[in-house]
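Lecture notes, unit on protein representations.

Consider one protein chain, 69 amino acids long.
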Amino acid sequence: MELLRFKTSLKCGGCVKAITPGLKSLHSIEKWSVDLENPDKILEVEASEDISDQVIESVKKAGYLISQL
């Protein structure tokens, strides 16, 4: 199991809803969450393999900034 962490530009629940369809389409993801209380708006993804590039592409496609930690 891989734990992937990303800094994002997500700001609210609406932003999280906007990235949800893209992340749900990545079948390797077991679960994911966004810590909107953290100043870096941390996205944590648990996946069966390292799919960092696909997560980054998915979030960028939804219109948000993202970088791996």
